[in-house]
């Protein structure tokens, strides 16, 4: 029992204090043993309730010192860096909306609903007259498949379409071939060119990378907004 108490006491002490306590108890134990063996004692003393030998005390002391040294030398863990929140395309567009203006040298009626697509900034704008009411981050035609510049009118709409490269003479097994189902809110403004939802590109492409075969690809919610905003005959101005 005393040995267990001793172990508990030693754990909370510094190394010099541990050594001092152990020496004190060992000396006390030795004196007590000598007194028990004295011929002046008429009766043999009861065996002390002591279960720590000198060798065990040395081992325990070594363990205490080793544990403290391991703690001292243990490397301080490096805290994980807190990731910086990345705004979504919708948050970016919302922040840009108050500053959006029509492209220069474009005429429009005071209440005309029309769409501007900037292939340089990869943005699409919904305008009512000269006021932007919506901004979307988009992905337009990649090099070699650029979205045509100029003024167009929406001439065909399909709420759920299939995009097939073979309609453009490109086989499916060609590196540039594709067959894409469930393409929502397609609004064609020229043969083979449309505004539509794009689910196969990473979200980081929108507003940053021109990656389509000429169409103006949008995130689903953006494509739906433009579907509701426009109709047959709505004017689209593509510029850089």
Describe the structure.
A hairpin with a 2-residue loop joins strand 6 and strand 7. The strands form 2 sheets. A 5-stranded mixed β-sheet has the order 3-2-1-9-4. The protein is 29% helix and 24% strand. The N and C termini lie far apart (87 Å). The relative contact order is 0.14.
How much helical structure, as a percent, in the residues?
25-40%
Task: Flag low-confidence runs.
Answer: none
User: What's the pLDDT, averaged over the residues?
Assistant: 84
What characterizes the major β-sheet?
5 strands, mixed
Order of helices and strands: HHHHEEEEEEEEHE
**What is the gyration radius calculated from CA atoms?**
41 Å
Work out the number of β strands: 9
Lateral arrangement of strands in the main beta sheet: 3-2-1-9-4
Topology:
Layout (H helix, E strand, L loop, with lengths): L1 H10 L3 H22 L17 H20 L15 H8 L16 E6 L4 E6 L2 E7 L12 E4 L2 E9 L14 E12 L2 E5 L18 E3 L1 H10 L5 E5 L1
Parallel strand pairs: 1-9, 7-8
Antiparallel strand pairs: 1-2, 2-3, 4-9, 5-6, 6-7
Helix pairs in contact: 2-3
List keywords for this structure.
single chain, alpha+beta, five-stranded mixed β-sheet, 5 helices, elongated
Structure summary:
29% of the residues lie in helices and 24% in strands. It has 240 residues and is α+β, with helices and mostly antiparallel strands.
């Amino acid at each position: 029992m005393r040995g267990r108490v001793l172990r508990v006491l030693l754990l909370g002490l510094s190394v010099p204090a541990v050594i001092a306590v152990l020496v004190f108890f060992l000396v006390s134990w030795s004196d007590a043993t000598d007194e028990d063996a004295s011929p002046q004692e008429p009766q043999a003393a009861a065996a002390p309730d002591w279960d720590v030998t000198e060798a065990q005390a040395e081992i325990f002391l070594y363990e205490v010192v080793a544990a403290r040294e391991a703690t001292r030398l243990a490397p301080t863990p490096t805290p994980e860096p807190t990731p910086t929140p990345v705004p979504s395309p919708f948050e970016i567009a919302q922040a840009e909306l108050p500053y959006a203006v029509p492209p220069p040298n474009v005429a429009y009626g005071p209440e005309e609903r029309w769409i501007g697509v900037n292939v340089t900034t990869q943005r699409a704008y919904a305008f009512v007259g000269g006021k932007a009411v919506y901004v979307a981050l988009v992905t337009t035609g990649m090099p070699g498949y650029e979205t045509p510049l100029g003024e167009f009118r929406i001439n065909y709409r399909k709420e759920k379409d299939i995009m097939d490269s073979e309609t453009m003479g490109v086989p499916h097994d060609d590196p540039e071939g594709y067959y894409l189902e469930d393409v929502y809110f397609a609004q064609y403004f020229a043969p083979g060119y449309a505004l539509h939802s794009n689910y196969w590109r990473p979200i980081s492409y929108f507003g940053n990378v021109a990656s389509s075969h000429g169409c103006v690809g949008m995130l689903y919610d953006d494509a739906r907004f433009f579907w509701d905003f426009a109709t047959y005959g709505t004017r689209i101005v593509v510029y850089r």
